[in-house]
Amino acid sequence: MSQLVDCIFVSTEPYTEQGRRDRSPEECFRFCLEVNVYAERLVQFGFSEQEIPRPLIHVHRVTELVLRSEPSDDLEDFLAEIEWSRAVMEETIDALETVGADAHARFLAAVHNDLDGFEYKVRSSNLGSIREVIAKAVEEHLSADALAKRYGDFGVSEGDDLDRRWRSICLQAVRYMDGWTNIKRVPNGPYNDAELKRYFDSRLEFARRLAAEGEGKRPNVVSINDTKAFVMASLNGDVEAVQDMLAAGADIDARMTGGTASLTHGATALMTAAAQGHIEVIRVLLAAKARVNTRRAKYGETALILAAQEGRLEVVRILLSARANINAKTAGGYTALMAASRNLQLEMVQTLIAAGADVNAKTKDGQTALLYACGRPVDQASTSGAPVNQSGHIEVARALLAAGADVNVSNSEGWTPLTHASRDGLSEVVKDLLAAGANVNARTDYGFTALMVALSWKRAEIGRLLLAAGADVHAATKSGQTALMGAAGSGFLDLVQALLDAGASVNAREGHGSSALIMAAGSGHLMVVEALLAANADVNARIKFGRTALWFASMNGHLEVVQVLAAANADVDVKDAEGTTALMIASKNGHHDVARFLESLRPPSGTAGAS
Fold first, then answer.
1. Band of residue 377 on the pLDDT scale cut at 50, 70, 90
2. Between the CA of residue 513 and those of 310, 435, 550, what are the distances in Å?
3. Superfamily covering domain 505-605
4. Do 439 and 408 contact (CB within 8 A), yes or no?
5. Which of 101, 267, 501, 516: disulfide with 271, CB 3.0–4.6 Å?
């Protein structure tokens, strides 16, 4: 692929001013690449095998090689071993002279049209991405006038003068590109965004000209029925190009293939226009009878789902008026209403509900619109317990509940709207769900209740709401974790006390043997430790590795907790399974105040056995 990038990376400085030598034909030929590399790329760009004579595919390389400066060392090393035979050189020249420079224009147009599909970095780190390389090539491209000034207006010579014939073809190619893209390139000129965009969009200009002039006027640069060009015109909102290609017979419902960009792969023109919000293009396509419910290849989105996903409310309304299937699903069962709910777009949610969207539709993993509205993506969720911006969640959840959304629906892992909202700190949503009849003690597949989830994620306010709503304080997960452990580990003293008052087991143990006291002590929550001890927590309970609350408090340097535990008759000489004592781990971790305190509890040396 780095060969493809380098083939259009050109140099601009006047060679005479820089004192650079011209490359001999042999040097140029050595840097030309073997046929199969480009044949494979051209096929991917939509060329048929019959359209690619073996030597023809080197035309782009031919044009640039006589213009380029010294290549970077790594590229030169990479290409140094590639050789061409004289027979292949002559075959190439003959083909180029026969077909003309149009092939060069066509190749570049194909490459530029597929830029968005590339996520490739060239070998040389200083060259950047393929987009940057091509942008630089365009910026620095020598114009036809500059090329003619350097070489003269060469004609095609007879005989074996390969060098002169080669250069003549290059001149034709550059002039051809200048004429067809309407871009005036100035050597060493400034970077120009507007002209660069026109250069990248030139494939659509080719299609327009061919439609206007007729197929027989020029060699075919890009087919007027080219799906990629048509879909890209729609993606870019180019109404004129879309109209021209429709008039020339473009397949209005064809799906784009071969691309990898997220909005174009497997999509039709209507889908890309809907996703981008190009209303005028959408109106043109619908007037031309585009199929509104066609599904995107592989993923199965319709234009309506893509519009909802991208927040295009006006597009959604237009598509609904064109009888788009409001309950169409992707391959995974995702609907337009789910997309709008997930993105918290209240007006769109209301529009879809009013048009008959199924509020209880499920994806393959059991997600519904309400589940999406009641939680945030996990990568956006926080365990800090900090205040959460609930804007959007409240309104969308209320709209869905009012429309009959199932408040106790659960996904494939047993999560309900209440557990989602409890995890993500959406206290107002929790209130609405409880008022709508949410089961406060529903469990996930692993056994978590909403209360456990809230306390594990440091949501104290929600924990209080759930306790007041009758949450089961005795519930435990499959591994034995309880709400009291979550509250103790998070340092929520009032919730710990409330759970104890409600009868929560103070000495319950989870799978590794940890207890509420061990969790509180290890986190340094002094007042929680005191409350648990007052409730008769086992001060010397051990996890499977033999470590106790005092051992963990010592490891983490919580001096006051260590002192309280010691006063409650904790074993200060406790050793873990590896023989490490609390004193040893405190010293190892640099908690010298804890180490001194533990040392002070040991009997003075020499006192044992004294008479």
1. low
2. 48, 37, 15
3. Ankyrin repeat-containing domain (1.25.40.20)
4. yes
5. 267
